[in-house]
């Protein structure tokens, strides 16, 4: 039977956060996402993305990019053609993940099999603590209970005091520090040494992307991970002397298709891998979970930061996140 023509739609959705999410660049109280839905016959595939101002994106610009690719997608362009239609970023991510989901639904085959991956299994995710005073962050670490992996948002100053306070209330937790580009060459060595003394396992993006050459000339007592400095495979070549790991986010890479290639190439040149996320719902986490078993660190806690998740969301047991059901994605 001949298939009906594919239809693409995009919708803005908002999810209130359980509490304000604060990083060095500012604060937010809701997750603003765009969901692309592809429908054909009785099958529907979905993908979710987060427009991110740091990368020059807005809700309007992402919706415009999606609209620019609509005709081609509806005429049959697939994941390969999509890589040429749109640049890496949120818009391409939403369409790409919707294409994966639609293919899984139409073929009755899980997305992980279509991608040639092993079946995903439950993994431990980091849980993020917003930037605050040392006392506020220590209280947040205490409230996080026995979570084994905490990700700490830090700023340009006061890092030693915050780490000391957090260690008093979370003495056994593994720690990731995310500076979100807020450190400088002047305080880099001091902050890295503080991270070493307090047992930090990884430091994300201490210096601004494009102004991080100093990372090549200072010791790394703690492994350093590229986040804002890394989007897709084209960024890898210039990072090896400065970073020990990379943070792969589907919204940066432009979807699962590019993320799979990026993961393989990063491993070939010796990077450790972190799988990360923006603050979003379970629909955005589900495709990234397919990569989690290949990562040293997993940071897919977006739904844990929401006041409410979407229907059929991922199942979290403490910090253990379980693979998605087909009703959600894939």
Structure notes:
The protein is α/β, with parallel strands linked by helices and 330 residues long. It has 2 domains: 7-108, Enolase-like, N-terminal domain (Enolase-like, domain 1), CATH 3.30.390; 123-321, Enolase-like C-terminal domain (TIM Barrel). Helices cover 32% and strands 23% of the residues. It contains 10 helices and 14 strands. The strands form 3 sheets. An 8-stranded parallel β-sheet has the order 5-6-7-8-9-10-11-12. It has a 3-stranded antiparallel β-sheet with strand order 1-2-3. Helix 6 links the parallel strand 6 and strand 7 (174-178). The model has no long low-confidence stretch (mean pLDDT 96).
Count of distinct strands: 14
Helix content: 25-40%
Task: Characterize the main sheet.
Answer: 8 strands, parallel
**CATH architectural arrangement of the largest domain:** Alpha-Beta Barrel
Question: Which features would summarize this protein structure in a list?
Answer:
single chain, TIM Barrel, 330 residues, Enolase-like, domain 1, alpha/beta, 3-stranded antiparallel β-sheet
């Amino acid at each position: 039977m001949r298939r009906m023509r594919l239809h693409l739609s995009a919708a803005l959705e908002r999810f209130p956060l359980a509490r304000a999410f604060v990083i060095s660049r500012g604060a937010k109280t809701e997750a603003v996402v765009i969901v692309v839905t592809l429908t054909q016959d009785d099958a529907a595939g979905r993908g979710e993305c987060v427009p991110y101002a740091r990368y020059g994106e807005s809700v309007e610009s992402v919706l415009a990019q999606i609209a620019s690719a609509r005709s081609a997608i509806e005429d049959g362009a697939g994941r390969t053609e999509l890589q040429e239609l749109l640049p890496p970023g949120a818009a391409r991510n939403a369409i790409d993940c919707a294409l994966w989901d639609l293919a899984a639904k139409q073929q009755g085959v899980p997305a992980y099999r279509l991608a040639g991956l092993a079946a995903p299994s439950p993994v431990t995710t980091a849980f993020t603590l917003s930037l605050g005073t040392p006392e506020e962050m220590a209280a947040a670490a205490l409230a996080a209970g026995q979570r084994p992996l905490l990700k700490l948002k830090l700023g340009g100053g006061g890092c030693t005091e915050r780490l000391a306070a957090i260690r008093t209330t979370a003495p056994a937790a593994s720690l990731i520090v995310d500076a979100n580009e807020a450190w400088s060459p002047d305080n880099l060595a001091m902050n890295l040494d503080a991270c070493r003394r307090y047992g930090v396992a990884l430091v994300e993006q201490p210096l601004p992307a494009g102004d991080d050459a100093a990372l090549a000339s200072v010791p790394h007592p703690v492994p350093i991970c590229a986040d804002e400095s890394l989007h897709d495979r084209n960024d890898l070549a210039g990072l090896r002397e400065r970073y020990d790991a990379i943070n792969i986010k589907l919204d940066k890479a432009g979807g699962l298709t590019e993320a799979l290639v990026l993961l393989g190439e990063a491993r070939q040149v010796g990077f450790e891998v972190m799988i990360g996320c923006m603050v979003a719902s379970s629909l955005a986490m589900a495709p990234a979970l397919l990569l989690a078993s290949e990562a040293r660190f997993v940071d897919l806690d977006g739904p844990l930061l929401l006041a409410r998740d979407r229907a059929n969301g991922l199942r979290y047991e403490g910090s253990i996140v379980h693979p998605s059901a087909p009703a959600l994605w894939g």
